[in-house]
Design brief:
mainly alpha, 7 helices, globular
Length: 117
C-alpha cells in the first residue's frame, strides 16, 4: 500500500556532514582546476552557502538533486541563487559557462571518491 502521509517540502538544506561538503568541494576543485578554492581566495565575500552551491554545480548533478541538497523548494529560488552567485563572482556570463570553462575532462577519469580521503 502507498502511504497517505503527505511529503513535506524541505525548509532547510539537507544536514550533510561537513566532511561530505569538504569532499564535494575537493572533487569540484580536482575536476575544475581549483575553481572553488580560487573563488574563495578571489572573492572573500562568498559565504558557505555560495561555496556549497558552486561545489555542487561543478559535480554535474541534476537540478533537482542540487536543489534537494541545498534545501531549495522552488526552481526560481534555485535560479535566483545561481544568479546571485554569478554576481558575487563578478561574472559577465552565466555561471554554467564559467564552470564549463574550468572543466578538466581528464580529471574525471582520475578523481574518484576514494582519492579524496
Amino acid at each position: 500500500m502507498f502511504s497517505t502521509t503527505p511529503v513535506l517540502p524541505l525548509e532547510q538544506p539537507l544536514c550533510l556532514a561537513e566532511s561530505l561538503w569538504q569532499g564535494i568541494k575537493t572533487y569540484a576543485d580536482l575536476t575544475h582546476g581549483g575553481i572553488v578554492s580560487q573563488a574563495i581566495e578571489n572573492h572573500p565575500s562568498l559565504n558557505p552557502t555560495d561555496v556549497q552551491l558552486l561545489s555542487l554545480c561543478c559535480c554535474e548533478l541534476p537540478t533537482t538533486v542540487v536543489m534537494a541538497c541545498m534545501g531549495y523548494i522552488e526552481v526560481h529560488s534555485f535560479y535566483n541563487k545561481k544568479r546571485h552567485l554569478a554576481q558575487t563572482l563578478v561574472l559577465k556570463g552565466r555561471l554554467e559557462d564559467f564552470i564549463s570553462a574550468h572543466r578538466n575532462p581528464e580529471a574525471f577519469n582520475t578523481a574518484i571518491p576514494g582519492d579524496m580521503a
